[in-house]
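Repro:
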Amino acid sequence: TAIYGSNFPLGLLPFIFFVLACAIAFATGTSWGTFGVLVPIAVTILGGSGTLALLTVSATLGGAVFGDHISPISDTTILASAGAQCNHVNHVNTQLPYAITVAAVSFVSYIIAGFVQNVYISLAVAAVLTVATLFVIKKVTAKK
């Protein structure tokens, strides 16, 4: 399939939109603003229907929530640290390992899902990746 006369692999769009959403939400501190910018672009590029469009919008939403969650200027991050009565920078730093682990699994899962485009296979692969990641983390921390 081609976009604007090129041989661009459309299966990479969920991954690309995930990364873009992560970066924009982190930089701006807003997931909703990121939704507002990227979802219309994704829907327009992919015609608004079909499995790939659904995957790309999902990747955009997930990436935006991740970026917002780890952004030190996000209102939710600021309110969470204030509500917990802890140092704001410490709160951000303690959230990073958990959020980055999930984002890394999602990162790989969206690449696979973009090319497979089957919900059951993609979900199974993502679940296996998640469990494998947990086992690797357990092995690494057990050695310490």
